[in-house]
From TrEMBL:
Domain spans labelled Thiol:disulfide interchange protein DsbD N-terminal: 42-155
InterPro entries: DsbD_gamma, DsbDN, Thioredoxin-like_sf
Keyword Translocase: no
Organism whose genome encodes this protein: Sphingomonas insulae
Listed name of the protein: Thioredoxin family protein
Length: 663
């Protein structure tokens, strides 16, 4: 597979170099490289460490010793003085992961320095010159293009007293090299999965753990890795079918790793009864989160219409319960379907999260049409087509209403929902689907109570003219939802998204208003108009491609792991927050707590750096980072105190006072 990927990428690179200006033949390389010795005047017979100081151009990346599913590792050819030798293998720092089109790459996107060990021959007189040359061939890539490059590097040393040079740099570079773990691990293939057990003291700090194999056929590169602690062991469950010893690097923190190896054997699995407690707690959190969603502006009108239907009277006990059960079934099925799709995509290597469908501007355009149709229905402009199920009874209509409520509610993350859905992504799939079902149950609870408790139905206001007035009042929050979706389309796809969003509103309004006029004359809505109401928005959505640049985010620099590492190395406190334009609770927190004069003043006084991760378009790098902190999506708020090894995860509901206290 890697050979095929390499051939394809090389062909693409060659074509691009021939037809574009990304890599001119005589232009500077995209990886700036310099040979840096730990001593410019080594003694005869001394070992010298030479760092290959590598600095990728912004947007480009180099590859680790094992590139993963695609690319290839650098090839080196030394030309050394007589008697001098170089160890065949470099010492590589811990890489990072980059998932593109389902292919996992092990790469470096920030400056890095592989270390080479050279042996100076003995018996040389002081002042003897040692010219060293290195020819290196490598592949350098962006997210969309790869270019093969070559460099000729040179370094001249002189036999001397062995004094150290570049000590500060080498302290940093050596700290990034994985340290060998003497104790061997064990792996076992069990139930179609690879379970790797690495001996590691329980007191050892582990953050963002991941295993990087040295060679192919050990683990499936793009497969998710579930990491758990079990006393003095670290267990990694993933996919793979190794046939001999496994060797690689275990990442245990930012730029920290261990060189490990494991042999086939039996891995005793922990008996963790707390798993049931975690699943029940996540289920309860999801039910509570779903219950809170009912007050959101995109859900409340739908729930209110169903309640008004019961308030009209004429509903017997059986019919009310059928309506309630249908609404419950629709909400639960939609939440389970979305959750199952997320679990399936993540199992395939994608870094999607909750509300992932809103990362596609075409889906947003379809939602504009749907919510505007409901707005017109609430405003009394027509009665029959799409929103019929929202205002009429029947099991099928109630199922559709519950499904619609669950679908449009996904961006409105409640304050208790993020942790529950994050836990669902690390639970076994049956427990995870149960958590997603709990979200649907919470969403359906109010209508379920109205349907099954006669006293609640009797407490509803009696039918009258007020119902029509209230129905038109409900059109206001739904209209605000439409405007929010148009804004989101603009943020995701620029002017094209804005124009197509407005065009969708106009086209939907014309078609449905024409149908409504027919209804007022005593005629049916019209099959042609009903068909147009479906086809026109779909055609407008299909015309949208997205990808336009969005306006700059307020309140901080763009988040990247490299920028975070730089700020932390400077000793700066860092507040990193992850948001999306379709996330309602994110926007509430930004308006009320983050982007305020008081917070800005407090951050300036305490020199708190702010990094913003915008996940509106589903950036996979951000998705992996969010996933590593046990979140299914945004919002996520992290505070890195100076000197702390791990961030403090802040609540999903912020207050200005909470942020002002960060220092």
């Amino acid at each position: 597979m890697r050979a095929l990927c390499f051939a394809v990428m090389t062909l693409v690179a060659a074509t691009t170099v021939a037809h574009a200006d990304l890599a001119p033949a005589n232009g500077p390389p995209h990886l700036a490289m310099t040979l840096v010795p730990d001593s410019v005047a080594p003694r005869a017979g001394q070992t010298v460490t030479i760092a290959l100081d590598t600095r990728p151009e912004k947007g480009w990346h180099g590859y680790w010793r094992n590139p993963g599913d695609a690319g290839f590792a650098p090839s080196l050819a030394w030309t050394l003085p007589k008697g001098a030798t170089a160890d065949p293998d470099l010492q590589w720092p811990v890489p990072s992961t980059l998932l593109i089109a389902g292919l996992m790459n092990y790469v470096y996107e920030a400056p890095y320095a592989p270390l080479a060990t050279l042996h100076v021959p003995a018996g040389l007189a002081a002042g003897t010159r040692l010219p060293m040359r290195l020819a290196i061939n490598y592949l350098v890539c962006t997210d969309t293009i790869c270019v093969p490059e070559a460099q000729q590097l040179s370094l001249d040393l002189t036999i001397g007293d062995g004094a150290a040079a570049h000590a500060t740099d080498f302290d940093r570079w050596r700290a990034a090299i994985p340290k060998p773990l003497d104790a061997a691990g064990t792996y076992q293939l069990k139930d179609g999965k690879l379970v790797l057990a690495i001996p590691l003291p329980a007191a050892a700090k582990v953050q963002d753990a991941a295993f990087f194999p040295y060679g192919p056929d050990m683990v499936a590169y793009a497969a998710p890795q579930a990491v758990t602690r079990d006393g003095d062991r670290l267990l990694i469950a993933t996919a793979g079918a190794p046939k001999g010893r496994i060797a690689g690097v275990l990442r245990i923190g930012p730029d920290l790793g261990l060189s490990v190896h494991a042999d086939a054997g039996t891995v005793a699995m922990p008996t963790d009864r707390s798993g049931w407690s975690a699943a029940l707690l996540a289920f309860a959190g999801a039910v509570l989160g779903g219950l809170i969603l009912n007050v959101m502006p995109c859900v409340f009108p739908i729930l209110s219409l169903k309640a008004l239907h019961l308030a009209r009277g004429g509903e017997d006990e059986r019919a009310a319960r059928v309506d309630a059960i249908g609404y419950l079934v629709g909400a639960v099925l939609m939440c389970v379907a979305l959750g199952g799709l997320i679990l399936g995509l993540r199992a395939g290597g994608s870094a999607v999260g909750w509300a992932f469908q809103l990362q596609d501007p075409r889906i947003v355009v379809l939602l504009i049409a749907l919510t505007f149709a409901i707005t017109l229905n609430l405003a009394g402009r027509f009665e029959v087509p799409v929103p019929q199920f929202a205002s009429h009874g029947g099991a099928a209509g109630s199922v559709a209403t519950g499904a619609l409520a669950a679908f449009v509610a996904t961006p409105c993350s409640g304050p208790f929902m993020g942790a529950a859905l994050g836990a669902a992504l690390v639970l076994p799939w049956p427990a995870a689907l149960a958590v997603f079902a709990g979200l649907g149950l919470g969403l359906a609870l109010p209508f379920l109570a109205i349907g099954f408790v006669p006293s609640l139905r009797r407490g509803l206001p009696k039918p009258g003219l007020w119902m029509e007035r209230f129905r038109r009042v409900l059109a206001v929050p739904m209209a605000l939802t439409v405007l929010a979706l148009v804004w989101l389309a603009w943020r995701q796809a620029g002017m094209a998204g804005l124009l197509l969003g407005i065009a969708t509103i106009v086209a939907t309004g014309v078609v449905l208003s024409l149908g409504g006029r027919r209804q007022k004359r005593g005629l049916g809505f019209g099959r042609a108009l009903a068909l147009a109401a479906l086809i026109v928005p779909a055609g407008l959505a299909a015309a949208l491609t997205g990808g336009a640049a969005r306006p700059a985010k307020v309140g901080g620099d763009t988040f990247s792991e490299a920028r975070l590492a730089t700020l932390r190395a400077e000793g700066r406190p860092v507040f990193a927050y992850f948001t999306a334009d379709w996330c309602l609770s994110c926007k509430v927190n930004e308006a009320s707590s983050i982007d305020t004069a008081a917070t800005h003043a407090a951050f300036a006084k305490n020199k708190v750096a702010v990094l913003v991760g915008d996940w509106t378009d589903g950036d996979p790098a951000l998705g992996r980072f969010i996933q590593a902190h046990n979140r299914a999506g945004v919002p996520l708020y992290l505070y890195y105190a100076p000197g702390a090894t791990e961030p403090r995860v802040l609540p999903q509901v912020l207050t200005p006072g909470m942020l002002a206290a960060l220092r």
